[in-house]
Design goal:
Blueprint: H1 5-22, H2 29-54, H3 62-79, H4 84-106, H5 111-130, H6 135-138, E1 144-145, H7 159-183, H8 185-195, H9 197-202, H10 207-233, E2 235-236, H11 243-256, H12 263-281, H13 286-300, H14 304-321
Antiparallel strand pairs: 1-2
Helix pairs in contact: 2-7, 2-10, 2-11, 2-12, 3-4, 3-5, 3-10, 4-10, 7-8, 7-10, 8-10, 11-12, 11-14, 12-13
C-alpha cells in the first residue's frame, strides 16, 4: 500500500534532514565549511525567490542586503561584544527595515526600471561601506575580522561542525516559515500580483503593501544569510559584496528554479561549487568554463533544476500508473 503524497514528502524531508545532520561527521572540515555556505546561500536565494519568483519583482541588488546583514553581525560582535547567536535576528530586523523602506519608493517602478534601481543599490553599497564617516564601524577597505565562535562544551563537535548545525537550524526554521507564508493568503496575493496585478487590486489586494512587505521579508532572509555567511567566513570587507554577488544570487535563483522552495538548495549548490569545479578544469580561463556550464544548464533545464526534477518525477509517476 503506497503512502499518500503529502506523507511521502514528509518522509523524504525527514530522510534529507537526517542525512544533512550526519554529513559533517563523514567529510573534512573544509567541506563542512563549504556546506555551511551552501546553507547560508540557500536562505538568501529563498528570500530573493520570494521577491522575483513569487512576486515578480526583479532585483539586481540583493547583494547589498547580504552585505548589510554581514556587517551588522560583524559590528555587533567586534565592536559591541554581542554573542554571535544574538546578531542573527538583529541582522534580519535591520535588513527588513532597509528592504521595506527601499521597497516603498520602488513601488513606482516596474520591470527593468526596478531592476536598474536595485542594480544602482548593489553598485553603491561597497562605496558606502568604505566611506570615512562609517570607517570606525566598518573598518573601511580593510574590513573586520571576526573570531570564530567556539562550540558549547557539551556538543563534542568542532567549530566548523557547530557552525554548520547552527546554520542548518536557521535553515529549517526559515524554510518552514517561508513555506507557510507562501502557502497562505499573503503568498497567494504575491502570486496574484505577479500574474494579474490589475485583477488582484480589483479583488481587494493591497498591492502596494504586499509588494513592500515582500521586499522587506526578502531582505530579511538575505540579511540573515549574510550574517551567517560572515560568521562562517570570519571576515567582511566591502570588496566582498560587489555587484557580482547580486548577479550571482540572481543566477542561483534562476538555475535553482523560479517560484520553487527546493530550488534554493539547488541554486546554492550551483553558485558554491560550480566556480570551484570550473577553476579545477581550467586555471587559465575558469570563467569561460563557468559560462559554458551556465549555458548548458539553461539549455537543458529551462525551468531550473527544480522544474527538471518535477518533470522527471511526473514521468516516473505516469509510468508507474501505466
Amino acid at each position: 500500500m503506497s503512502l499518500p503524497v503529502e506523507r511521502r514528502k514528509l518522509v523524504a524531508l525527514a530522510i534529507l534532514l537526517a542525512l544533512a545532520c550526519a554529513l559533517p561527521f563523514f567529510v573534512a572540515n573544509y567541506r563542512v565549511f563549504q556546506m555551511t555556505l551552501v546553507l547560508a546561500y540557500s536562505i538568501a536565494l529563498l528570500g530573493l525567490n520570494m521577491l522575483t519568483g513569487y512576486n515578480g519583482q526583479i532585483s539586481l541588488g540583493h547583494g547589498a542586503f547580504y552585505a548589510i546583514g554581514a556587517y551588522t553581525a560583524a559590528v555587533l560582535m567586534d565592536k559591541l561584544g554581542v554573542p554571535y547567536w544574538a546578531t542573527i535576528p538583529v541582522a534580519g530586523a535591520v535588513c527588513f527595515v532597509a528592504g521595506f523602506l527601499f521597497g516603498l519608493p520602488a513601488l513606482r517602478l516596474e520591470g527593468l526600471y526596478l531592476a536598474l534601481a536595485t542594480f544602482a543599490l548593489g553598485i553603491a553599497m561597497p562605496q558606502i561601506l568604505k566611506h570615512k564617516s562609517l570607517e570606525h564601524w566598518t573598518g573601511g577597505s580593510q574590513g573586520i575580522v571576526i573570531v570564530k565562535p567556539d562550540p558549547p562544551a557539551w556538543s563534542g563537535v568542532s567549530q566548523d561542525q557547530w557552525l554548520y548545525f547552527f546554520t542548518l537550524a536557521w535553515v529549517v526554521v526559515l524554510f518552514i516559515l517561508g513555506w507557510n507564508l507562501l502557502r497562505g493568503r499573503i503568498g497567494r496575493a504575491m502570486v496574484a500580483i505577479r500574474d494579474q496585478p490589475i485583477a488582484a487590486q480589483a479583488m481587494g489586494v493591497n498591492t502596494a503593501m504586499v509588494k513592500s512587505l515582500t521586499f522587506g521579508v526578502s531582505a530579511l532572509y538575505t540579511g540573515i544569510a549574510g550574517a551567517l555567511g560572515a560568521i562562517a567566513i570570519q571576515f567582511v570587507a566591502p570588496d566582498s559584496f560587489t555587484i557580482f554577488l547580486s548577479i550571482t544570487l540572481l543566477t542561483g535563483v534562476v538555475i535553482g528554479g523560479l517560484a520553487s522552495i527546493s530550488g534554493a538548495f539547488y541554486g546554492a549548490l550551483f553558485i558554491q561549487f560550480i566556480p570551484n569545479i570550473a577553476d579545477e578544469i581550467s586555471k587559465a580561463a575558469p570563467w569561460a568554463i563557468y559560462g559554458i556550464v551556465l549555458i548548458a544548464f539553461m539549455y537543458a533545464m529551462p525551468t531550473g533544476v527544480a522544474g527538471f526534477v518535477r518533470m522527471i518525477r511526473a514521468r516516473l509517476m505516469r509510468r508507474r500508473a501505466a
